[in-house]
Amino acid sequence: MKFVKFAVLALAVLITSGCAGGLNSMQEREYKAFENEGVLIEEKTPMVGAVLGILPGFGSFYAREPGYGVVNLLFWPISVLWDPVSGYSGSKSINYDTTKSYLRKEKNKELVILEDLLVSKQIDSTRYLLEKRKIEQKYEY
Questions:
Q1: How far is residue 51's CA from residue 139's CA, in Å, rounded to a whole number?
Q2: Shortest CA distance to 87 belongs to which of 42, 47, 35?
Q3: Angle, helices 66-74/2-17, rounded to nearest 10 degrees
Q4: What is the pTM of this model?
Q5: Terminal CA-to-CA distance of the chain, rounded, Å?
Q6: Looking at the 3D structure of the chain, how many domains does it have?
Q7: Could you report the per-residue pLDDT of 7-60, keeping only the tens digit for each?
């Protein structure tokens, strides 16, 4: 009976915590491109997340997945089989999202400056389109 209560509690925590998913194949390619171009923002170190996953739930906590951290804490030592992977992939997801957000903001800043130049008639529409294309290509990965 106690095990059933424990399992129900663990399942409830898991359901309310969201899904700790890694990057899909397209995101993995972008992540590698960010690394190759030197623009990846490493907010979390994936290897640290993996190593912390050996401790009860720490990999998930490190990857900002507290619900999974609690479940992994409750299922320790069995959770050592999957929590290092969660810590690693969760850290990469955080870095990916942080980098994408930063690049989007930088692109928008450049586009606003360019639009201001067009509105103030410092550049013509042809020059605007050429410069806009350069900015868009600069931020494609």
A1: 33
A2: 47
A3: 160
A4: 0.78
A5: 53
A6: 1
A7: 545 444 444 444 456 899 999 999 999 999 999 999 999 999 999 999 999 999
